[in-house]
Design a protein that fits this description.
169 residues; mainly alpha; 77% helix
Length: 169
């Protein structure tokens, strides 16, 4: 069973890495969105490996189902030009600096993980979904409502940008 978990971990890692490269490197915003969706689904798979089914389901419902759909609507409403500034490839120097930044941060974090061992804290306590839901929505209900307001404002902003473009402003 442990071998299957390692294979699943490798598969989800490949899905996350592949999706992230597509999301960052795609010239089309819609293809970048598909890469983001693949990455988020891979993260949901990682939650499943951690035996956190509720978190995996919330990852799929909230991020893939709501956030990505909202971003997709914003992409479709704004009709970004294919010849815009973001469509041009970055200069080689900028790409090399970005690669150096990623490798240095990754190297430092990798070194820290391999050289510093953390003491185990024991087995986590099993919490029912009902208690988890009450715990999240009880004291943090306002935060959930504010998130919905932020999403509403961002959607209204996309509609406003589209309206101004169509009127020639």
């Amino acid at each position: 069973m442990e071998d299957m978990a390692k294979i699943a971990f490798g598969l989800y890692t490949l899905i996350i890495l592949g999706g992230s490269f597509v999301a960052v490197g795609a010239k089309s915003l819609v293809r970048a969105m598909i890469g983001l969706i693949a990455t988020l689904l891979g993260v949901a798979g990682m939650y499943m490996l951690l035996n956190a089914q509720f978190m995996a389901l919330m990852q799929i419902l909230i991020y893939v189902g709501a956030i990505c759909v909202l971003i997709f609507f914003a992409i479709m409403l704004t009709r970004a030009d294919s010849g815009g500034e973001e469509a041009e490839s970055a200069p080689l120097r900028q790409n090399l600096l970005a690669l150096a930044a990623v490798l240095s941060v990754g190297g430092i974090l990798g070194w820290l993980v391999l050289t510093r061992s953390l003491p185990t804290t024991g087995t986590p306590v099993e919490v029912s979904i009902e208690k988890l839901g009450l715990g999240l929505l009880g004291p943090y209900g306002l935060a959930f409502e504010l998130i919905s307001v932020v999403l509403l404002v961002s959607m209204a902003g996309a509609v406003l940008l589209t309206w101004e473009r169509r009127n020639g402003k």
